[in-house]
Records
---
Amino acid sequence: MDEAKLAKDSVWIGIISGNLADHAWRKGEKEKAIGLVKKNIELSMRYNERKDAMRANLNLANWYIELKEWKLAEQYVMTCESLMEDKPYFLKYKVELAKSKSNIMRGLGRGGEELKQLHLYLMLKDSLEKRMNDKEIQKMLWQRESEKYNRTIQATEEKRIRTKRMYQFIGIVLLLIFAIIVLLVNKSKIKIKMRNTLLEKDQLALADEKQLLDQELMILRNSLTEFTATIRQNDVVIQQLRQEVAKISESDPAYITQVTDNLNALLQQHIMTDERWQKFKHVFNKVYPAYLTQMRQTYPKVTENDLKILALLKLDLSNASMSELLCVSEKAVRKAKQRLKKKNRTH
């Protein structure tokens, strides 16, 4: 109590004084209790605690009613009423005040005032009960709204959790898709790399094959060139041998026989037999792959002998060389060439 006074805490002063007064009243120390309440009223008014002073005055009035001190009770009731305000908070105290005033009026023998206060008491009591009911209804409404709000919050939270899980699921799916794409891309890169490696190997193989073919073609060209040169050289030798035979045909029979044998042997080697033609044609087709095929298209009724003439013409051999190779006269060669030209003009 002293600490509350030192701190000038009017609320605690009122609470402590009221509690001490109630305790003293219950113990039968009525004078002490009344003194404590009066002290409470004094301190409450000093610190402008009108509500506490109002409650203390009403409490003191009720005690004086109990002591049948009607005048003192009326005095404190009037003081209590003067401290009340027209606010909902004071309604329950107004009910108690009306009841106390009716008791005082009965004690003072004022029947009319007693009835008036009783009527006011009943009205205020109904109003208080109605207000309490309204409060209960309001409380229920607030509770319902609170539950609704809580349900809304819970539903929102559940929706948030579902949305979060959905986004997490979508994120995981996207990560899996990304991982699959990366794997597929890497796999494709590996396949492309392997394919490129195989292509490089194939290109190298083709390059090697082409190089071999080029080398083979070069060899065949050289062979064909060498063949042509040999034919021309043999033509010269054959002509020389024939001239030599003509000069000494009667002077030296033994030498003529030797020269004739050499000439026949050379001619035998020089003549293009069917077997030699097939070998020659194989080499010729390698060097000039489309030539004979084109000649067949140009001359639909061309014969194998015609192809021989055409192939030898491609090598730029003379009529004499062709006649020696084919074992025909130069006149026959010229006729064959003329026949081919005629076929060409016809087509």
---
Amino acid sequence: MKNKRDCAGIILFGTAGMYLVQYTYFKTIELSNVSFATILQFTAPFFIFIYESIKNKKVPAVSTVILLFMTILGVVFIATKGNFSNLSVSLEALLLGVISAIMIAFYSTYPKKLLKKYGSITVVGWGMIIGSIISNVIHPIWKIEGNVNAKSMIQVIIVVILGTSIAYLIYIASLNYISSSLAGILTAFEPVLAAILSVAIFGLKFSFIEIVGFVLVFVSIFILEKRL
């Protein structure tokens, strides 16, 4: 990249859109639990809507906001399974969770111009390299704490390749075809698919509250997809 502005943009994307998203999300899990972190993560569409409303000088329809609330409520039901005691957490966890959602909104809206010029592989690839450099400056890879063995390394590799690299690449590439708002909302399918896979793989059963959550997510996203 010979354009200095684009280089600065990639650095910003790698810092906020890659490193901070991952750090704040996993730190929120560490300080609270997966349910709480997941719920806060899926408030990102609100921040995307706020940004795009300001940018386009257009107030979203009340029905759209209601549908967005329905989506998040569905995620809450799925993530907590009706046990709302999991949502009692520290202020630090709350702040980091909100920052995580804001950073998700950032990487959903910011890189569109870069994508048009360089493509998703280049943008995501350089973003991850920059994010990993920052991460290693703060916490070098050779100072890993905990029990490092073959099993843990395989788990890390799976998270890096499937849960991060491929997931980011597909998500960022989708921004070439759909709006940031719709892309953000569609991520609500993540806990739905996780729940379905847990049933298929581990033989778990859905509770009534989870089924209600599925219905809320599917119905609201189906309607929103037609509008956005």
---
Amino acid sequence: MADQTIIQVRVDQELKEQAAEVFDSLGIDIPTAVRMFFKATVRMQGLPFSTALNSTAPTNDYSSDGGMTIGDRHFSVEETDAFMKWARENLAYNAPDGIDDDETVVVLPLEYGRDIPPAMYTQLVSKVPAGSVTCWEHIYDFLGKLYNRQVQGQPDRPLPRVDTNGDMIPYWRVVSKNGVLGEYYAGSKDSQREQLLREGIPVVQRGSVVGSYKVENYKEHMFNFGTMRIVRR
């Protein structure tokens, strides 16, 4: 795993809340948005948006040469293809071929011969049906059995938030091992609560802490990955 560092930035409280609301509607949190901004900056070798001093909103156009124009900058076919490849790999989840139903897990080869593909984590989250929940510890344990190794955490790059159809990955079905809401990737606790309630999961306030929730009788709703059919590539 690459060395990690912490960045602290002071921003106006109202601005932070407004941005967080937008990010939440997209299914991401502030740290993920910052990482996406950094990656886009490195990829484009500049700010990933126009800084022109005018009120004209930039437009995105696909040019006759197959490239793409964003604002006043034109990207060649090669640059456009590279960006789309990056987006597919980093921002969208591609379900492995050969999955015939929601009860099948396709075990993908290790990346570079050693790393569990991020798509495996997302695939397992996607297998949790409405009306059930899971926790990262159960996902790590199941991945450990699939790959015969100890899995203690997530990969060093962010997991996809949507699939290639634009559908949200159901991270709201991931709670803590004790059934508490608010796990990373799930969005705000309130939105996670609303999603689970819509799917028939009983959610109650956690003690006297306002805004803290947990799944009632969470053990009864924990999904059992051991029932899945395994297909190895």
